[in-house]
Amino acid sequence: MRDYSIGIDIGGTKIAGAIVDRQGNIIHKRICETPSESKERVLQVLANLVIEFHQLVEKENIRLVGIGVGSAGQINFNEGIILSGTDNIHGWYHVEVCDYLKQFTTLPIFLDNDVNTFTIAEYQLGSARGIENLVCLTLGTGIGGGVIAEGSMLRGEWGGAAELGHMSVNMYGPSCNCGSRGCLETYASGTGIANRMRERLQNNDSLADWEVALYRKNQRSITSKDVFEWKELGASIATEVAEEALQALAYGMMNMIHTFNPTAIILGGGLIDGNRDLVPAVQKRVSKLGMASLVQPVTIRSSSLGEDTGLIGAALQVWM
Ligand code: BMX
Ligand code: CA
Ligand code: ZN
């Protein structure tokens, strides 16, 4: 009998669940909408997934060995509690996920940050396979991080380590929802890039007519994709915003290299999946910064496992 585990990825808009083997093969997958109205409803969705997957494997004669859950936010890994997470779910703080799910299963349950699980997948199966000193960064709605140090996940005191999107690259920079200023996330996440673009548009009245026409879009619906497309067309403000994002990333990554002395940095998330050219552009900038002995040997690569990396990594926690 082969061993499988249940992986669950809790996102702000959808919850994905899967039965996964140790090689990252998914044999069953379910996607549910995240009920934003209450944490009780979200927990119910998680319980239903666990119950359904248990029923499925009974029929198929395969062995489940554990459950791994991933979620954005600050996770107490030791106690299996989401301390705070997405704003999309009403009341989504201090959620005792592991204790709750224990009512529905006798399997061991693990709960970790979404990008920590992404990091586990890249480390065990992806483009960072076997790299024992590794930094992963995802550029999406936010920016998340995960660090493997000397072959183990770096967790800190209770699991909150490696919130790399909230490394500040400018103490006078834009305020961040974490309470700080100039976090990497405020410059180089999808949300951050769109915010910086909007800000610049509001404060600029000396643009060429063609550029004004280009930006004639409902400002609220501007995305980071627009910004990179406008940059390609040579639009001045979009170019400034995209360059600033790359430069912020480069400085952030230099700080990470100085701090963790990694062999490689893996970049993933929606922004990278949609624009792989970002990786060499960042690599070029990083290589000009910081201490050469630390920075020069580091390779920067994009993730290789696709959109299910976080979900697969959630399941792989069981074998980490
Ligand atoms: C934020 C932070 C991280 C998370 C990262 C990526 C919250 C809710 N989120 O910096 O914990 O790993 O975003 O999240 O505090 P995503 O939503 O972009 O996947
Ligand atoms: Ca993390
Ligand atoms: Zn922040």
From TrEMBL:
Belongs to the ROK (NagC/XylR) family. This is ROK family protein.
